[in-house]
Amino acid sequence: LQVSVPEPRTVALLFQPVLLRCHFQVSSPGPAPIVTWKYKSFCPDTWAPPGGTWDSPGEAAGACPDSARTVRIVATKQGEQVTLGDFYLGRPVTIRGGAELSLGPAAWGDSGLYLCTVTSTSDLQGNNEAVAQLVVLGET
C-alpha cells in the first residue's frame, strides 16, 4: 500500500472551494479500502518543544502532541459510501474519486493539517498515511 499527497501545502481563499488530493496504490486486489480524512489544528503558539526551538514553520505546525490541538474525523469512505464526522454535517464535504477530500467553501476553522489514511485488508505493507497542510486566507 502506498499513499501520497501530491500537493503537501495548499493555500485557499475564504469561501472558495477546496480540494485536497490524496492518491493510493494497493499492491493486491481485494475489497475496497477504507479512506479516512482526519483534521488536526495547527499547534498553539504557546506550545514549544523541550529546548524551545523549531527548524522550520512547518515543523512547528505539526510537532506538538494531539492533546495540545483539536483533532477530529472529517470523513470516511468505504466503496461509494461516505460518512461525515459530526463537525462537518450540513457542509458540502465529501470524498471524491478514490480519496480526494472536497471541503466545499473554505471556512476560517479549516486551516490545519489533514491526514489521509487508507486501510486495506488485502495490503498491510507500506505507507498508509500522508499529510496535507491547508491555510485559509481572508481577502486582502
Could you please describe the fold and organization of this structure?
The longest helix is centred in the middle third of the chain and has 6 residues, at 57-62. The model has no long low-confidence stretch (mean pLDDT 87). This protein has one helix spanning 57-62; strands at 2-4, 9-13, 17-20, 23-25, 34-40, 71-78, 81-84, 94-96, 100-105, 112-119, 129-137. It contains one helix and eleven strands. It has one domain: Immunoglobulin-like, CATH 2.60.40. The strands form three sheets. The chain has a six-stranded mixed beta sheet with strand order 2-11-10-5-6-7, with no helix packed on it. Strands 3-9-8 form a three-stranded antiparallel beta sheet, with no helix packed on it. It is mainly beta. A hairpin with a 2-residue loop joins strand 6 and strand 7. It comes from Vidua macroura. This is LSR protein. InterPro entries: Ig-like_dom, Ig-like_dom_sf, Ig-like_domain-LISCH7, Ig-like_fold, Ig_sub. Residues 1-132 form the Ig-like domain.
